[in-house]
Specification:
Pfam family, one: Ku
Low-confidence stretches: 260-305
Number of strands: 11
InterPro entries: DNA_bd_Ku70/Ku80, Prok_Ku, SPOC-like_C_dom_sf
Number of helices: 7
CATH class of one domain: Mainly Beta
Helix content: 10-25%
Largest sheet: 7 strands, mixed, barrel
Strand content: 15-25%
Protein name: Non-homologous end joining protein Ku
Function: With LigD forms a non-homologous end joining (NHEJ) DNA repair enzyme, which repairs dsDNA breaks with reduced fidelity. Binds linear dsDNA with 5'- and 3'- overhangs but not closed circular dsDNA nor ssDNA. Recruits and stimulates the ligase activity of LigD.
Distance between the termini: 30 Å
CATH topology of one domain: Ku70, Chain: A, Domain 2
Keywords: DNA damage, DNA recombination, DNA repair, DNA-binding
Order of helices and strands: EEEEHEEHEEEHEHHHEH
CATH architecture of one domain: Beta Barrel
Radius of gyration: 27 Å
Length: 305
């Protein structure tokens, strides 16, 4: 069975318009699924909303959304009222801007979707937009209403198709200054920097998401199998506790130099300071390491723009 599109509409670039479908790129369906059951009867439980005052279950037709204006006091928002004031979409993702891939900080990435042409008539226009993005090595920002909410979407070429990643709004991204503002300036000696550089170079690799191991899911699946087969449950070994050691000694051990104080990496005479974040403005810096080419769909392992 071919996958079903979660959204169907149009991708528009000025006078170029093509029908497209959006398909969820990340799914949790392969995870072990658990339900809440009654320990005594083994029956699956049903969730019900209870009015705390009357202690009676509230039927679905009587459930409405409300906004708390004071403690325990709510104004009711009827479904038709919400529908009346929210923006209405025309099923179009309109491309507004093109920009270099590296300008988009991955802090703003939300959910990725595969985009493909909806029909044969849309194939040629779709290919023009995709190849334009690929050859100019740019991404596009498009706007439209997705799933009843206005969204800004990042569009980029990906293999034979396109990836559309919804972006978080600026107010949703916390200021980095909240977390980083009290980090102290620390002087790092030249040898420490050289040891760190050596460790990084010896552990250099490539991004291979197929090698990532979900230990939690594997343990949960094994627990289910053991329960079904009546086997004893084996607890994993506890990890070894690390020792608190001198920073320089820890760097030397990590670099494979052990306790030999004479075996040092080439040290530079000058000293440096670690870079301190510049708060929220740093979170939006176009020079950040997060790039549009490395979205959540493992773009670095594919032929991306």
């Amino acid at each position: 069975m071919s996958p079903r599109a979660t959204w169907k509409g149009f991708l528009k670039l000025d006078e170029l318009v093509c029908g497209v479908g959006l398909y969820t790129a990340v799914s949790a369906t392969e995870r072990v699924s658990l339900n809440m059951v009654n320990r005594k009867t083994g029956n699956r439980l049903r969730r019900r909303f209870i009015d705390p005052e009357t202690e009676e279950a509230v039927e679905r037709e009587d459930q409405v959304k409300g906004y708390e204006v004071a403690s325990g006091e709510y104004i009711v928002l009827e479904p038709e009222e919400v529908a009346e004031v929210t923006p209405q979409g025309d099923k179009t993702l309109a491309i507004d801007t093109f920009l270099p891939c590296a300008q988009v900080d991955d802090l703003y990435f939300d959910k990725p979707y595969y985009v493909r042409p909806a029909d044969d008539a849309s194939q040629a226009t779709f290919a023009v937009i995709r190849e334009g993005l690929r050859r100019r090595k740019v991404v596009a920002l498009a706007s439209g209403v997705l799933f009843r909410r206005p969204r800004t979407v990042l569009i980029r070429a990906y293999d034979d198709g396109i990836i559309a990643t919804t972006l978080n709004h600026d107010y949703e991204v916390r200021s980095a200054d909240e977390i980083f503002n009290d980090i102290k300036d620390v002087k790092i000696e030249g040898e420490m920097l050289e040891l760190a550089r050596h460790i990084i170079s010896t552990k250099a690799g490539t991004f291979q998401p197929d090698t990532f191991h979900d230990a939690y899911e594997a343990a949960l699946a094994e627990l289910v199998r053991a329960k079904i087969e009546g086997r004893p449950i084996k607890a994993p070994k506890a990890p070894k506790k690390g020792k608190v050691v001198d920073l320089m000694e820890a760097l030397r051990q990590s670099a494979g130099m052990g306790n030999d104080a004479e075996a040092k990496a080439p040290a530079r005479k000058s000293t440096r300071k670690t870079a301190k974040s510049g708060g929220k403005s740093a979170a939006k810096s176009p020079a950040k390491s997060g790039t549009a080419e490395r979205g959540r769909a493992s773009a670095t392992t594919r032929k991306a723009s």
